[in-house]
Structure formats: structure tokens, C-alpha cells
UniProtKB/TrEMBL annotation, chain A:
Its main location: membrane. GO terms for cellular component: plasma membrane. The keyword Transmembrane helix applies. It is found in: Cell membrane. It is a multi-pass membrane protein. The keyword Cell membrane applies. The chain crosses the membrane at residues 7-26, 38-56, 63-80, 86-106, 113-133, 166-186, 207-236, 248-264, 271-289, 295-315. This is ABC transporter permease. Keywords: Cell inner membrane, Cell membrane, Membrane, Transmembrane, Transmembrane helix, Transport. GO terms for molecular function: transmembrane transporter activity.
Automatic annotation (TrEMBL), chain B:
Residues 4-500 form the ABC transporter domain. The keyword Repeat applies. This is Sugar ABC transporter ATP-binding protein. The lineage of its organism: Bacteria, Pseudomonadati, Pseudomonadota, Alphaproteobacteria, Rhodobacterales. Keywords: ATP-binding, Cell membrane, Membrane, Nucleotide-binding, Repeat, Sugar transport, Translocase, Transport. Gene3D superfamilies: P-loop containing nucleotide triphosphate hydrolases. It comes from Histidinibacterium aquaticum. SMART domains: AAA. GO terms for molecular function: ATP binding; ATP hydrolysis activity.
């Protein structure tokens, strides 16, 4: 019984949340336009959480993703002010993400500092760099090329509703692509399965000849690039960049992975489960906003729901362990 | 397959000679048992075979050709595979994936080919008669025994190397119940039948006597003897291992012992898998708890100490009812040595004296709240002497001790509170014969001094040699009590199953 509750409790909870908003917001919630809107709102979180899943599979964390997102946004924006082209500036910003991720990987895997400590330190470093690079300013307006800002506003038209075009946002497409890539990497390549092996039992993995150090190192590249990409998406969406705008992504992304873990059979992080976690948080945020719940109260509610879901799952797991 | 020869292998660590000119031949088609006390050099020999340690002298030859020493890949290439006592299941991965930890996954267009992966796994499992194990099931759904069998089966998966033929098994049954061990023995039979060879390292004499074709004994890093099993036996092996006659492995009970007062009264105790246990225990009595795996031996002890919360029944110790958790049980005069000493018993990185003092800190404190280190150390030193703990110092970390000495630390901890009832779960699991005999002598001394002991064990000689009475458990119930005196192993074993047949008939 507990087993069933644990397995499907999370899914039932998600459906309950959706049903709650659908009933309370009959006109606006379950409409194609709002769902597309939600998909765009959560696209940056999706990218960060999906790549975060890669390191959490190994039992590691990356706390620096939020400040990396801010950093990559201002790096691209500063390059725009120097009249760099959009592809070149985006390329450099992603390279910064890759370098930051690999640096995290080296510190955690080769040097052997706990991921919590190591990435807390790099969080501060990246955040400081973002301020240094931007001189603490917000870069906006004419400095941002129109092509960059238009990307987030555009997307293929997939239908009509109320005589207005329904647009599948480009940012949503990017997020879907990232999830697809991460899913293939984690579930369908031996690289990903080796990461799961490291997370399941590091000693066993090492004894079986799995190169634990390089694999752990390389996995942090995903979070670095993912964070940088999310930072660019954010900057594109608001057509501006400031040195703190990505900071909020980190905790929510980790929360989304944890929420997702409550849905999997053995409590492992899985990218599709993470996507479900992100969706729950996105739906909650969207629904509560529409119901005009105060944003501070919203934070209290979201935090409480995360605690409740993860706590319930922990209790269920303990029950299962006791019966063994 | 040609045979593998170790020729006059020596290995020194500083001033310590771990191996001194040891020669050994390992042939296909036979189980070669390697026996010796802790420190005899078994572990070093295994590390040399695994290529993890490079010998200072000597050669390893495969069919007349020398294998480069100190290279794990070369030993693997030569067909050696190692089955360790510690289980290394990777949680979150399926059985088939666990079997491919040290093999490349089958791939198609760069992606994992799950069909081929599962097929390779089930083919390897089938070769050992393990068709009942589903390769797609999560590894952690399997018991420790099946996990080990899966490990063995994984060595049968073909890869680029020369095929595996020589299996080095280091205490393979240490974590297994007797039923699981039986399956392992069947699999060993299969491996031998398919032309494999096994180097079997174990402290468990009955297993060696049953499985081995030849037995090699090491002592103090030297090769003592290699004999066919037909030319040796338990007494001789023990004598060669220890250099002394251990005919009295189990010291006799003091002849003038009289049954003491009832100290422990258990009535209708139900907790978890345990159902309606009722018995009395007298001071100075040793009650063995026997039964097949899963019959509830460990559950009985966990219920007594209050770790498993009770659904019904009473436990009365010395006239006082215990109805709380482990804390109350320890305080009331019960002491518990758990089965998993590494995960449930010891703080491995902490010093011996801290481990001993842990449950007794309030009794050893100054002004109730302040730790009295000197007193902790004194208590630990005294008790360490009583249990014949062999350690450099009581400040040594427990992880540096051998299994037998770790167990003695737990005994010392149990005795520090001057208990009236001692609960032991598999007290000599993974403990070498020398330390084992010391533990047996200790248990005997304690019971002669009036301590009541409840000892759950899967080791039949131990149950018969130490117990006054043996409680046989089945399906969580205490099915019967028998006097240990005059009972044989076969009779005891038959009682494990006896009742179930009768009940089936009824």
C-alpha cells in the first residue's frame, strides 16, 4: 500500500495540482495558449535542471549554475556592445560555461573537494566575475541586437486560437532539444550508464575499472554549458542582461530534480522525471500567479509543497527498507 | 586451459615479510582452498594474483609463460576473475547493467542496445543455472546471495579477453545465508564442470572440507603445506594454520555449573517478522538460535533489544519490563552485538576506546555531562584485555583492525555496561580461526560467570559447541527447543525442515 502510494503518490499529486487550477481558473488555465506560455516560462529552468540531473546522477551537485547563467548573459551582452555578431557572442558565452563547468569538474573530481563546498566557492567566483565583466550595470536597449531579443519572442506557428496565432516558442524548442540530448546521453549511451554506476556505488564502479575521475570531471561540463545556455535564453527573453538575473535558477533546479526523484521507482534522478518536476513547479507558479496569490506567499507554498513531496517519499522509502 | 603457477613469491612491506617464497599451482577443474589465519599472507597473495601488488621476488607463470607482475590487466587477460567478500552491487542499475560494469555495453549506432545487453546477461546467468534471475530486474531487489551469483555470472560474459577460467573467491559466503551459500556451491560445481578452477579462501572449515580438492595452508607468510583433501582434515588443517593443537576449539562447560535464576522472560513477543516468541533464559545459560535463512533469527534479537518495534508481548529482564527502544534495553542490562559490524556496529574511523565507550558515555561522564576521557580509556583498556583485543593502541581507528579484532571491540563495548543478557548475531562471521577460538573461550567464560547469552548463528558447529539449548526458528516462530548435548549437525539441520514437512502433511 505504502509502495503504491510512494510510486504513484507523486503523479497523483501532480494531477491534483493541475485539476485544482483547471477548476479554479476554468477560462484561462487549461488553454493551449497558457500551456505554451508555461512551457516558455519553464524553458530556462528545464535546461538547468536537465543538465543538473547529469551530475546528480553521480550523487554530486552544482551550486554554481545560477551565477554561471548570470555570467554568460552579461558576457554575451558585453560582447554585443563591442559589436560582436550574435553567433560569435553566443559561442563565447557557451565556451565560458564549458570552461566553468570543466573547472568545477577538476576541483571536485581531480582535487577531490566536496561538490557542495567546491561549487559554493565557484558560485561566488562566477558571480563576482559577472559583476566585474558588466561593471555592475544592466545592459539593455540598443546594446542588445534585435536578432537576439527576437529569438525568444519568435517561434513556429502551430495553429490558431481566438483568431490569434498559437506560437510554439523558440525557447521551448531549445528546452525540448536539451532534454532530448540529456535523455539520450543518460539513458542510451554507455557514458550515461557509467555515470549511474558511479552514483549507485562508487567503489564498485572503480573496482570494475570504470574511470571515475575523468567521468565525474566531464559530467560537470553539462551543468556549465546548460547554465550558460539558460543564461542566454534568459537574456534573450528579457532582451537585457544584468549580473544577478540567473541567480534564482540554482535552488529551483535542484528542487526540480529532487521532486523528479520522488517519482522514480528507485529514487534515482532521471531526466524525464526531472522534466515532470520542472513542470509541477512551473504549473504551480503560473496557476498561483493567475489566482493573484502574493508572490511571497507563493514562495512559502512552493517550498512547503517540495518539502511535503520529498518528505513523503522519504517516509515511504524508509517503510520499504524496514520491511526488508 | 594450462595451469597457473606461482613460483617462490615473496613480498615485503618495510620490515614485515608478508609472503616468503610461496609457491602454488592452480589447475582447471579443481577447487583449491587457501587457508590461514589473519596475517598469514592470504590477502597479499590475492593482491599479487590480482596484479594489485608486485611481488619482490618470484614469478607467475601461465602454462610456462611468465605473466608480467603488478598489472591487473595482464592478470585479467590470463583469465583470472576475483569475487570479493564485500558485495559491490550498484543500486539504480539493473542486473544486466551490473553484469556489464567491467564489460563494454553492446551498442548499435553508438547507443546502448538493450536487447543485446539483456540477452548477453541472461545467457551468462543460464550457464550457471540461474534462469530464475531476471536480468532486467533492479540489482538491489536481489538478496546478497543472488547478487554474488550475478557477479560470478558476469565473468562469463564474453569480451575481448581470453575467457575467464580461474575464479579467486575471497570469503564468498561471509555475507550469505546458508541457503544462499548452497546456491553458490552449486554454481562452483558448474564452474568446475565447465573446466574452470577456483581458489577458495575461507575461514569456514565445513565449506572447505566440502568443496576443496586440494588445501594449501599458509602461516606467517610461509607455505606450510598443500595436500589433497583426502590426505588432510579439519584437525590437521587447524594445527597447520595455528601451529598449535586446537582440538578444544569449544572449551567445555564447567562441570559443576548449576542452572541459575531466570533473568530473561519473553512472552508472546511479536515484532516485524517475529511472531509470538515465548521463552525463559537463566543466568549462565547459552541459548542458540538456529534456523534457515529468513526464519527470523536476527529478527528475534532485534525485537529483544527493541530495535524492531513490538506489536505485542512482553520482555522482562530481571523482573523489570522492557518496553522501550535500544536505549532502555542497554540500560536495563541487555547488550547486543549486531550482525553487520561495519554498518551497524562500529564507527570505523573512530578510535577503539570511543567505540567501546559509546553506549556508556553517561555512566562514564564526570558531573553527568562532561566526558571523562581518561576513564573511557581505562575502561576500554581493561575490557580490551579481557576480550584479548590485539591492537597497537586503544586510540587506533577500528578500520585498521582485522575482522576478528573488530568483533572483539564490539564484545568489549557490550561488556562495558556489565550486562546480564548478551545478544549475539552471527558472532564469528568473517572471523579467522584463531580469533574465533578466543571468542568462543570468552563466551564460555562469560556464561560460566553467570551471563546469559542468546546467540543467533548460521554456523552449526558453533551452535552445537557453545549452546546449552538451541531454539529452532521457522517462518518467524520459535518452533522448538532442543538440548544441544549429544545433538549432531545432521540432526539439527533436519529439524530446520522437519516441522514444515509435518505441517504440509497435516
Amino acid at each position: 500500500m505504502m509502495q503504491v502510494a510512494r510510486r504513484f503518490g507523486g503523479v497523483a499529486g501532480m494531477l491534483a495540482v493541475i485539476a485544482f487550477f483547471a477548476i479554479n481558473l476554468p477560462e484561462t488555465f487549461l488553454t493551449p495558449r497558457n500551456l505554451l506560455n508555461i512551457s516558455q516560462q519553464i524553458s530556462m529552468l528545464t535546461v538547468v535542471a536537465a543538465t543538473m540531473t547529469v551530475v546528480m546522477v553521480m550523487g554530486d551537485f552544482d551550486l554554481s549554475v545560477g551565477s554561471m547563467a548570470s555570467l554568460s548573459g552579461v558576457v554575451a551582452a558585453i560582447l554585443f556592445t563591442q559589436d560582436w555578431s550574435v553567433p560569435a557572442a553566443v559561442g563565447v558565452a557557451l565556451a565560458v560555461g564549458l570552461a566553468g563547468g570543466l573547472f568545477n569538474g577538476i576541483v571536485v573530481s581531480v582535487v577531490g573537494i566536496l561538490p557542495f563546498v567546491a561549487t559554493l566557492a565557484t558560485l561566488t567566483v562566477f558571480s563576482g566575475l559577472a559583476f566585474v565583466v558588466s561593471d555592475g550595470r544592466t545592459i539593455f536597449g540598443r546594446d542588445i541586437p534585435p536578432g537576439f531579443g527576437d529569438f525568444a519572442r519568435g517561434g513556429p506557428v502551430i495553429g490558431m486560437a481566438d483568431e490569434r496565432a498559437l506560437v510554439l516558442p523558440n525557447l521551448t524548442l531549445v528546452a525540448i532539444a536539451v532534454v532530448l540530448v540529456i535523455w539520450i546521453v543518460l539513458e542510451q549511451t554507455s557514458y550515461g550508464r557509467r555515470l549511474y554506476a558511479i552514483g549507485g556505488n562508487r567503489d564498485a564502479a572503480r573496482l570494475a575499472g570504470i574511470p571515475v575521475v575523468p567521468l565525474r570531471l566531464s559530467a560537470f561540463a553539462f551543468t556549465g554549458v546548460g547554465a550558460a545556455l539558460a543564461g542566454l535564453m534568459y537574456a534573450s527573453r528579457v532582451a537585457s542582461a544584468n549580473p544577478t538575473q540567473g541567480d534564482g535558477l540554482m535552488l529551483t533546479a535542484i528542487a526540480a530534480v529532487f521532486l523528479g526523484m520522488t517519482l522514480t521507482r528507485d529514487g534515482q534522478p532521471k531526466v524525464l522525471a526531472t522534466l515532470a518536476g520542472v513542470a509541477v513547479l512551473g504549473v504551480l507558479d503560473n496557476g498561483l500567479t493567475q489566482m493573484r496569490v502574493d508572490s511571497y506567499v507563493r514562495e512559502v507554498l512552493v517550498g512547503a509543497i517540495i518539502l511535503f513531496a520529498v518528505g513523503l517519499s522519504a517516509l515511504g522509502r524508509r517503510g520499504a527498507a524496514r520491511r526488508r | 586451459m594450462p595451469q597457473l603457477d606461482l613460483e617462490t613469491i615473496s613480498r615485503r612491506f618495510g620490515a614485515v615479510t608478508a609472503l616468503d617464497g610461496v609457491s602454488l599451482s592452480l589447475r582447471p577443474g579443481e577447487v583449491h582452498a587457501l587457508m590461514g589465519e589473519n596475517g598469514a599472507g592470504k590477502s597479499t597473495l590475492i593482491r599479487v594474483l590480482a596484479g594489485l601488488d608486485r611481488p619482490d621476488e618470484g614469478r607467475i607463470m601461465l602454462g610456462g609463460e611468465e605473466i608480467p607482475p603488478g598489472q591487473p590487466a595482464a592478470m585479467r587477460e590470463a583469465g583470472l576473475r576475483f569475487i570479493h567478500q564485500e558485495l559491490h552491487a550498484v543500486k539504480g542499475l539493473s542486473v544486466a547493467e551490473n553484469m556489464h560494469l567491467d564489460h563494454p555495453y553492446p551498442r548499435r549506432a553508438g547507443l546502448v542496445n538493450w536487447g543485446a545487453l539483456n540477452a548477453a546477461a541472461s545467457e551468462a546467468l543460464a550457464r550457471l543455472g540461474l534462469e530464475t534471475i531476471d536480468p532486467r530486474a533492479p540489482m538491489t531487489d536481489l538478496g546478497p546471495g543472488d547478487q554474488m551469483l550475478v557477479r560470478i555470472a558476469s565473468t562469463l560474459i564474453a569480451d575481448g579477453d581470453r575467457p575467464a577460467w580461474l575464479y579467486v573467491m575471497d570469503e564468498p559466503t561471509a555475507a550469505l545465508t546458508s541457503g544462499e551459500s548452497e546456491r553458490l556451491f552449486t554454481v562452483i560445481g558448474q564452474l568446475i564442470g565447465q573446466g574452470g578452477g577456483v581458489l577458495y579462501v575461507s575461514h569456514r572449515m565445513p565449506e572447505v572440507l566440502r568443496l576443496a580438492d586440494r588445501v594449501t595452508v599458509l602461516r606467517d607468510g610461509r607455505h606450510v603445506s598443500t595436500r589433497p583433501l583426502s590426505e588432510t582434515g579439519e584437525a590437521r588443517i587447524i594445527e597447520e594454520m595455528t601451529g598449535r593443537d586446537l582440538s578444544a576449539l569449544f572449551p567445555p562447560r564447567r562441570s559443576d555449573a548449576t542452572p541459575g535464576e531466570v533473568v530473561l522472560r519473553v512472552e508472546q513477543l511479536s515484532a516485524g517478522p517475529l511472531e509470538e516468541a515465548t521463552f525463559e533464559l537463566r543466568a549462565g545459560e547459552v541459548l542458540g538460535v538456529a534456523g534457515i535463512a529468513g526464519s527470523g533469527r536476527g529478527a528475534l534479537l532485534r525485537a529483544l533489544v527493541g530495535e524492531q518495534s513490538r506489536s505485542d508481548g512482553t520482555v522482562t529482564l530481571d523482573g523489570r519490563t522492557l518496553n522501550g527502544g535500544p536505549k532502555q534495553a542497554w540500560r536495563g542490562g541487555m547488550a547486543y552485538v549486531p550482525r553487520e559490524r561495519r554498518s551497524e556496529g562500529l564507527m570505523l574511523r573512530r578510535a577503539i576506546f570511543e567505540n567501546v565507550a559509546l553506549p556508556h558515555l553517561s555512566g562514564l561522564a564526570r558531573l553527568r555531562y562532561f566526558l571523562d576521557h581518561r576513564r573511557q580509556r581505562r575502561v576500554a583498556r581493561d575490557l580490551g584485555g579481557q576480550v584479548q583485543l590485539k591492537a597497537a593502541s586503544i586510540t587506533q581507528a577500528c578500520e585498521e583492525l582485522s575482522g576478528g579484532n573488530q568483533q572483539k571491540v564490539l564484545f568489549a563495548r557490550a561488556l562495558a555496561g556489565a550486562p546480564k543478557v548478551l545478544l549475539l548475531d552471527e558472532p564469528t562471521r568473517g572471523v579467522d580461526i584463531g580469533a574465533r577460538s578466543e571468542l568462543y573461550r570468552l563466551i564460555r567464560e562469560l556464561s560460566d560467570a553467570g551471563l546469559a547469552v542468546v546467540m543467533a548463528s548460521s554456523d552449526l558447529p558453533e551452535l552445537l559447541g557453545l549452546s546449552d539449548r538451541i531454539a529452532i526458528m521457522r517462518d518467524g516462530r520459535l518452533s522448538e527447543f532442543v538440548e544441544a548435548e549429544g545433538l549432531t549437525e545432521a540432526e539439527l539441520l533436519s529439524r530446520f525442515y522437519h516441522l514444515s514437512k509435518e505441517e504440509q502433511a497435516a
